[in-house]
Amino acid sequence: MKSIKRTTRLSEVRRQTKETDVRVKLNLDGSGKSTITSGLPFLDHMLELFAKHGLFDLSVNCRGDLEVDDHHSVEDIAICLGRAVSEAIGDKKGITRFGDAIVPMDEALCRVVIDLSGRSYLIYEVNTKRQRIGNFSVELAEHFWRSFAESAKCNLHIDCLRGRNTHHMLEGTFKATARALRQAVALDSRITGVLSTKGSL
């Protein structure tokens, strides 16, 4: 596949509510550099992995009401990240659109398939056992990806095919999602307009 080069695809999103103040900067054509400050060290780690394995340059800064719960911060970061992806892609002309990845993390094996279709849908089959990792509520991992899919307007299937260690399972899903997204946003010179028989995405 011959690649094509165009202006670097950048976006910057801010979301302010009574619960959070989130800023996200994204470069889809980066090298994997990241600066992440969410107040949730485990989420910081996952987003650093996301940037590194997607080869995205990513900056996330969130000041949230963690004294209440981690829900608002996790949700609003995901909303901003999804919106940043959507804005950075732009008109979607020339993008591969679909992406998939299977990533092992020790005993865990995770599969992600994505379609930048303009329609949001999430299937999340990750059966974890722990309820918390540090101050991060494990149940919010699914909510993170649901909020991301809705904002990015993508069809996202995340499956952990096997695994026992919750950290490994979630890490595998973030790495696999990054690699699948990296594939989906890649530009292909053979694609004229958008990759859809409808003529729009």
What does this structure look like?
The strands form three sheets. Strands 1-2-4-3 form a four-stranded mixed sheet, with helices on one face. A four-stranded mixed sheet has the order 5-6-10-7, covered by helices on one side. The longest helix is centred in the middle third of the chain and has 19 residues, at 71-89. Helix 1 (41-54) runs parallel beside helix 4 and helix 2 (71-89) packs parallel to helix 3 (140-152). It has four helices and ten strands, in the order βββαβαβββββαβα. The protein has helices at 41-54, 71-89, 140-152, 166-184, and strands at residues 10-16, 20-27, 34-37, 57-64, 98-105, 108-115, 121-125, 132-133, 136-137, 155-162. The chain has 201 residues and is α+β, with helices and mostly antiparallel strands. The two termini are 22 Å apart. A hairpin with a 2-residue loop joins strand 5 and strand 6 (108-115). The chain is globular and about 50 Å long.
